[in-house]
Structures are given as structure tokens and as C-alpha cells.
Amino acid sequence: MATAGENSAAELLLRAAALVPLDRYALAALVLAAAFLYRFLELHVLGDLLRGLRGGRVALTFHPDSQVYHRVASKCRSLHGRYLATPWLASPHLQTLFLGIWGRPPSVTYRRQLYTVRDGGTIALDWLLASDWEAADGSSCDGTISSDDSTPIVVVVPGLTSDSTAAYVKHLVFSMASNGWNVVVGNHRGLGGISITSDCFYNGGWTEDIREVVNYLHQKYPEAPLFTVGTSLGANILVKYLGEEGESIPIAGAASICSPWDLLVTSRFISRKLVQRCYDKALAIGLKGYAKLHQPVLARLANWEAITSSRSTREFDHHATCVVAKYETVDTFYRKCSCANYIGNVSVPLLCISALDDPLCTREAIPWDECRANKNIVLATTPNGGHLGFFQGLTAGRLWWVEPVSEFFSALHDSPCMHRQKTQEHGLQSPLESSIDKGPYVNLMEDGMVAAVTNEDTNTHESLDKHNQAVSEMEGSDVNVQQNGITSVLQDESHSAVKNTSGTEDNVPSAQGPVGSQEQREELSTDKIRDAIAPVKKSINQLIRSQGRSVWWLAYIAVVTSWPLLGAIGFFLYRKKFRNSSPAKRLLRG
Fold first, then answer.
1. What is the mean pLDDT of residues 299-310?
2. Which residues form the Serine aminopeptidase S33 domain (predicted)?
């Protein structure tokens, strides 16, 4: 009876379900699918509607006594407002996907410069000058920058496998050039259509390229303030470079956009959930495509079959990055190359922008306390934005983060907070090093120019002989110098400059010439002794100033401990003379 009752109940339930129209089932399926997609894509349309389409407020993290905030960031209107995403892109995944596929970039035409670094690698520098943007309106433009031009220069460091053609790079470059600034994109090695010309590849911690490019630009355009912007993995490289250099860096200000901060935490994050694993596979495909462009070089340095079989960024780093860059393990590479370890040493005004819903660079890696402890850093976070997306407007024609970067740089350029490079103090001079050995009289500059250098101590015949020899070797022929991919030719003016310098020293008496009297010989020997002990005296004075009383205690201990030994040595040397003296004989007889 119970079984018959149960069957009858099931039959009744099926009959009741059959009476429901199919369109109701379709509607329910659509509701469930929408709820799943809303959750899976992390949509925030309803949240924006509940907030009255005002967007999320920008949260700022900074030190209470930070002059960078009070004098610079406080004047940036966009940092004290709200960010509202484009309604039909109200998802971090949709923003990131739309940026990678389309992005609606403005039309930009670069001027390319090939730069050769010290190890033989080649970097493509793509320029967009403020005059180029003005020339688009019909005015003439020669496309050059004079060495005394004071127009600020913005150096852009793109993200992983990105170059100057990326949509977000074009948005930034176009905005800064339209504000009257010169912009240069430092493409990574092997990107931008340039082949690998050395055995070095870029990675998330490779700062040598940005260091050489910045130093080159600073030397070529010394009057132009340098600003830098790093995006995604380029932000990690930039912040690491800022921390490595400290005060001795020719950067006036910087901005970090969507930095991964901690590569180890980020690596674990993108392998955690299904949607993140999709990003991981997409990044691995991009890395393998980059590797195929340079297969002849990479196959010689690493296991090519293992590289092509990589299914994640971690596997690619294991088979390629760690082998080429000589890291023991992948975790070692991630730990050593994470920019979060260098934040405390950043001395340049730095604006950091991150989205809390970034699907690649998790909020778990953001170093909140480290940013708050550094007076030079202002951290701006938004609830939404995706990875480098931050689209705004109904047509998604603008990226929000470009505006605060432009405002921050403009306010910083007009404020006293702009960083000034501090030269590093050299160590103590060796006591055996004379002033003659400090450097050549013909100095080879970084830009390929040769200039005459005068020394402080030019009273000895050795310095004159070296100088005259250098001048004689240079006369009669031009000198071609090629360094860092730039060739410079010496003209006759450089030769005449060296000759004029030598002409001022012709009246210095030679130590090998005849000496008229004993007084002159004694005076000359005294001068030589004084010149010889001058470096020692200078070093001792510097050591005393740096160490204080400890030097005097050290001298006292040295004298006390060595006095008996010196007395014994003196007695041993003069014992025969002591025995032959009359007082000694009387003492022995008595």
C-alpha cells in the first residue's frame, strides 16, 4: 500500500509539472543562468544602480606626514572622486577582455629609435613628441628634441608580452602628448618587432634595461625632467628599479598601474579558481608565442620541447625564465623579483593605482602597510576596474587611470616635491693612490663626446708627460667613438680644446730639468712628500669624521701595544753602539 501511495504521489507530481508551460521553464533557466553568470563574471551592475550610478569612491593610503600627498595628490581631482565603470562593461573580466581584444585606442604614430645596451641587446624606443601631436593639427614638426629642451619626458614600461601597440599604452601616450609632454615607450627585448641580439631575455625582475634607458635619456636631455609609468608586470619592474636605486636616480616622479606586487602570491592566485586558471593559460599561450619568435636563441639556452609544452606561466618560468636568468627555483625567482621587497627604499614620488577586483593581480598582494610607511608613496585603490581596464563613459572611450596619472605628474612638476638626483659619495681613497692615477686627461663621455679633463695636482712631470702624450696621439686625426648605439665624430674644436688646456700647463717646471740650488731640491722633495701623504691625510680625516672616538681609541691601543716592540727593536739595532759608548763601559766596569 505504501509503495502504491508513493507511486501515485510521484505520478501526481509529474502530471503537475507537465501542466506548467515550457516558456516558464525557459524563463527559470534564464534566471539561473543569469545568476550564475553574474556571480562568475563578478558583475556589479546592481551595485552601481543601488549607489545611484555614482561609482565607487577612490580610497587613498598614504603617510600622515607625506608632503607628496599634501602638496601633490591633494590637488588631483580624480583621486578624490569616484570611478563608475562603463555600464555594459561592469565586470573586471569584461573590462580586461575588452581591453585585450579591442580597447578603442586613439590613433598614434611613433618615431622609432633603436638603442643598443651594454650586453649587445637591442631595445626599440618608440617616441611620440608633443610637437607630433601639435603637427596633427597642421603645424610643421621636425621630430627632434634639442639637448637643452626642458619639456618633461615620460618613459612608459609596458606589461607582460605588451609593447607600444597595446591599447592601454596608446591611451596613455596620447593623453600625455596632448598635454604638451614628450613620451617614449621602452619596449621589452624581443618585442615591438625587434629580434633578440644577445643571450639576455627580459623578465619580471629585469631592471637593467630601464636603468640604461633612463640614464641615457638623462645624459642626452639633462634639462628635461624624467617621469616613468609602469603597467602590470612593467610596474613591478619599475618599482623594483626605484627601490634599487634609492636617492641616486634621475627620476622626478613615477606611477605604478595594476602592479602584481608579490609575484609568488600572484602566481598562486591565478591557479586557484577556474576563471583565474583561464587567465593563466592565456598568459602561457602569449609567452610561448613570444618564445617562438626567438626560437633560435631560446632553443640554444634552454629545453625547447619543455618550453613548448608549458601549460601555465609557472611552467614556462620553470623551463625558460629560471634557466636563462639562472634562478634556482621558480619560487626563488618570484621572491627575489617581487617589487614589494623594495618599497621601503623608494625615494621618488610614486602614485600607485590598483583595482580591488583585478582578476590577475590580487588585492592580497597589495603591501598596504609598506605603502603607508613610505612618505613618498600614495596608493589609490578602486572597488572596480579590472586589470588595466578602468573604462568609463557610455562608449568606453577613455581609461580612468590615465587621468590621475596626468594630474599627478602635472602637479608634481609644479611643486617642490619633484625628486632631484643625489650623487653617490665615493668611498675612502686608497693611501697608495696618487692624484695622477685618478683618471685620464681625455674623458670619454656616455654620449660619445671627448672632453679635456684637468687635474687638481699638476705639479709633477708624470702628469705632464701623460697629458702631452694623450694630446699628441689625438692630433691630426678625428676620433670615432661608438657607444650605446650612437656614433659621434670628434671635430677639430675638441682637439683645440685639449691643446688649449695643455697650453696653460706649459709653465709648470719639470722635475727632470736642472735644479739650481740645494734649497730648490729640498723644496721640491718637500712638495713630493706632501703630495704623497695628502691622500693618506685626507682618508684619515674622513675616517675620523665618520667613526669619531673609535679611531682615537684604536690609535691609542696601537701605540701602547707596539711601544715595547719598538723599544726592543731599537735596542737590538743600536746595542753595539751602546756597548762602545763611554758611559756604557763605565756602567759595565762598575
1. 96
2. 152-364
Contact at 8 Å (CB) between 467 and 505?
yes
* Crossing angle for the helix pair 167-178 and 92-101, to the nearest 10 degrees: 80
- The full DSSP string for 324-335 is HHT-SSHHHHHH
pLDDT in tens, 124-140: 999 999 998 876 655 55
pLDDT at 448: 37
Residue whose C-alpha is closest to residue 158's, from 117, 108, 182, 192: 192
Task: Say how far apart CA 275 and CA 258 lie, in whole Å.
Answer: 19
195 backbone dihedrals φ, ψ, rounded to 5° = -80, 160
Kind plus residue range of the DSSP H or E element containing 522: helix 518-547
Among candidate residues 395, 422, 409, 423, the one with its CA nearest the CA of residue 227:
409
In the CATH hierarchy, which top-level class contains the domain 57-136+147-262+338-414? alpha beta
**Backbone conformation region of residue 193, classed left if phi is above 0, alpha if psi is from -120 to 50, else beta:** left
- 528 in helix, strand or coil? helix
Q: Tell me the C-alpha to C-alpha distance, in Å, between residue 442 and each of 23, 446, 461, 469, 500.
A: 89, 13, 18, 11, 13
Domain borders along the chain are 57-136+147-262+338-414, 263-337
DSSP strand pairing (442-444 vs 377-382): unpaired
What are the helix and strand counts (H, E) for the chain? 24, 17
Residues 6+ apart with CB under 8 A from 271: 277, 280, 312, 314
Q: How many CA atoms lie within 13 A of 538 on its CB side?
A: 15
Residue 136: count of CB within 10 angstroms of its CB: 12
Cα–Cα dist 210/228, whole Å = 10
Q: Give the model's pLDDT for residue 561.
A: 53
pLDDT digits (tens, 9 = 90+) for 456-469: 333 434 443 444 44
Rounded to whole angstroms, the Cα distance separating 340 from 240 reads: 8
CB 171 within 8 Å of CB 105: yes
Of 365, 356, 363, 364, give the one whose Cα is nearest residue 385.
356
β-strand partners of 230: 157, 256
Other beta carbons within 10 angstroms of residue 235's beta carbon come to 28
Q: What is the 3-state secondary structure (H, E, C) of 467-515?
A: HHHHHHHHCCCCCEEEECCEEEECCHHHHHHHHHHHHCCCCCCCCCCCC
